[in-house]
Amino acid sequence: MELYELSITFEKEISPLREREIESVMAMSNGYIGTRNSLEEYYPGCDPASFIANLYVKAPGDEFNFLPKIPDWTRIKIFVENEPLNLAGREIIKNSRYIDFTTGTIERNWQSKDEQGRITTVKIIKYISLATKNELGKLLVITPENYTGNIRVITGIDCDSADFGHLLNMNRESDRFAFVQMKTKYSERELKMFHKSSLNGKHKYNIENSYSGSFEEFEWHSELGREYKIKSLCTVNRSPETNFDESMARHATRWKQRWDDSAILIKGNVYDQKLVNFATYHLINAGEFSGNDCSIPARSLSGEAYKGHVFWDTEMYLLPFYILTNPEVARALLMYRYNTLDGARQNAINEGFKGASYAWESTDTGLEEAPEAAILPDGQVIPILSGMHENHISSDIAYTVWKYWEITGDDDFLMDYGAEILFETARYCECLLKKGNDGLYHINSVIGPDEYHELVDDNAYTNYLVRNNFDVAVKAKQKMNIEDEETKRWNHYKNNIYSGLNPKTGLYEQFKGFYNLEYVNLKDYEPRTVPMDIILGREKTQKTQVIKQADVLMFMFLFGERFSREELAVNYDFYELRCSHGSSLSPSIHSITAARAGKTREAYEYFLKNARIDIGNEFGNASGGVHIAAMGGTWMAIVMGFAGLYYDENGFRFDPHLPDEWDSIEFSLKWKGKRKDIYIDRKGIIAS
Ligand code: BGC
Question: What's the CA-to-centroid distance between 578 and ligand 1, angstroms?
């Protein structure tokens, strides 16, 4: 697949106000380690941070786990004739940073002139290896453009920005690498980081150790116009014998392969192509070594927001991408849910139920990690009920287990692991049901995806997903030739759960009593930069029809093949008017449902809104890390919205709605282990 427009260039000048955002949007990861793209020489206002998936710790007195910052391996200090080279107080000739989509690396090109007129060009390339889990690479190229003189570089591992309290060990001066061995501040988790570099040319070499970190120091007399390259390889929990060039080549090869499997090519709009490349970059990064004992946090490993906790975001927004482009990653992510079943069983017991209740916010154990209260900016303490009541998460996971099986045909996974998830979540769902006088089963006191309305009865989304949970659990039992009392009960429930559908209008009521709430015309509040629940206040919002994010539209998207265009349009027209998009998970689903309902213009506007969430900082909080679910949403908006992919166990089909701005789209999918290349333009669809 031919690709073009391979980079995103950010600011020429440094803007301290945007720096934390740029650190997030240009973050690197391989699913095991993630690092924000901080300016290597460090400035006040920078927030350098690296995280290791699954390295959760708990601060004393805190109820909940978080991912601590590990030491920063990207730090570089450069001195020309003993004067620090930085962006302060000198002429910046250029300073561009970009993600190189061809190589999966982050690049910075920087040229400055100091007071003595010395011009120095600096190029830095960084990557986190997609081929070898614990390798991190850094290439520094310095060119003294118009002078000869002394250059000194200090590069290594900085411990100051880390949440690691105890330094256990450092290397000996005689070792030719930097090294730190640390223990986390609050719990006794150990980490070793090695940093080994080489420089082309004659130089003096030193190791600098202090409580602030362990660094390698290179000093040499530079010649005019010559390129000096310092190649550094940092390894985590593994000694540094690896060769930098080989490591980088392995990374590039794996990257090319992933890119080839996952990229979407849009003809007709260069800017949109960049947006899509940007999302695909982060999705590939987040997935590679994730899974089994960890999953992808809501902000991936690119920032501290949500403390590294895992939500339904992974199954509903990310898994479609992985299942259809890299099923091995999808399987590993579902194995994380299998491996945390015991925690989910414990959560069910804590709620007084049986089966498995997956944590709304999950970490390494699967136990519920959602906070019970939050403090609003005005100091008000509000209860957070999602941990106890946002029960749809368990059925969301069951939905995705089944989708994974339908698309991959991975019977071994289903038999050995997936089925147990389906059965245990179905057992939990049984406990949620209450039989009503109407002879139907109801689910009371839940929170649906729309978190602005709490403890509602018969949330249409939850009920629909629970119904599906019974359905797929029964199907799995049938595949395993199990015919028992449970199967009969589940079969009965699945056909008798209250749906909220008015058959005359085709409209689903989001929950019982929703129609009686006050209608608020959201247009009256436009333009706005603040979420509606802040404008109206929490209590008032609950009394209105203002919703946070796609709820009815969410299940209509998930089960797209079951709804006609007209049915979808009726619900879209009703709920779109009431949706305030208070979550980054919302615009992509509106884009997909609008496209499927034939409203291509609206779909395109929502596509842009979603795809710009981080690059345009649409929610104002990109500094806390990228909204990885929205990246999955970008991919889904194209493949499932504009290309109109629908699928089930028997196969897939397309119902395309290309926006006017695009001539064609091209991508590939994995279907039951085979690659399918798809090309769609206005003349039709070619699948090969
Ligand atoms: C959304 C949830 C989402 C969470 C993490 C919340 O604001 O309402 O649906 O799972 O953020 O992204």
Answer: 18
Name the 3-class secondary structure at 677: strand
Q: How far is the CA of 178 from the centre of ligand 1 (A)?
A: 40
Spans of the chain, pLDDT less than 70? 1-14, 173-174
pLDDT at 3: 35
First to last CA, the chain: 13
Query: What was the pLDDT predicted at 6?
Result: 41
CA of 300 to the centre of ligand 1 (A): 13
Does 2.70.98.40 match the CATH number of domain 7-253? yes
Cα–Cα dist 107/117, whole Å: 25
What pLDDT shows up at residue 688?
92
Determine which helix (DSSP H) or strand (DSSP E) holds 687, and give its type and residue range: strand 684-687
Q: What is the pTM of this model?
A: 0.96
Could you tell me the residue ranges of all domains in the chain?
7-253, 294-687
pLDDT of residue 120: 97
Q: From residue 239, how far is each of 178, 184, 234, 245 by CA, in Å?
A: 11, 20, 9, 17
Separation of 585 CA from ligand 1 center, angstroms? 7
> Radius of gyration of the chain from Cα atoms?
26
According to the model, what pLDDT value does residue 174 have? 65
pLDDT at 4: 36
Residue 638 sits at the vertex; the CA angle it makes with 636 and 642, to the nearest 5 degrees, is 120
Other Cβ atoms within 10 Å of 136 Cβ, number = 24
d(CA 455, CA 445): 4
Ligand 1 atom 11: residue of nearest CA: 583
- DSSP state, residue 307: G
106 near 125, Cβ under 8 Å?
yes
Predicted confidence at residue 118, as pLDDT, reads 96
For ligand 1, what atom is nearest to the CA of residue 313?
Answer: 10
CA distance 462 to 447: 8
Ligand 1 neighbours by CB, cut-off 6 Å: 298, 311-313, 449, 451, 548-549, 583, 585, 629
User: Which uninterrupted H or E stretch holds 574?
Assistant: helix 565-576
Residue with tokens 């049938």: 478
Question: In the structure encoding, which two tokens stand for residue 137, read together?
Answer: 């690479």
Q: Indicate the helix (H) or strand (E) that contains 343.
A: helix 341-350
> Looking at the DSSP assignment, which residues form a beta bridge with residue 119?
113
The CATH classification number of 294-687 equals 1.50.10.10
Residue 211, classed as helix, strand or coil, is: coil
* CA–CA separation, 241 and 233 (whole Å): 9
Residue 551 CA, ligand 1 centroid: distance in Å? 12
Question: Residue of the nearest CA to atom 9 in ligand 1?
Answer: 449
Sign of CA dihedral 262, 266, 270, 276: negative
Atom 6, ligand 1: residue with shortest CA distance: 583
Pick the closest to residue 274 from 613, 584, 644, 3 (CA basis). 3
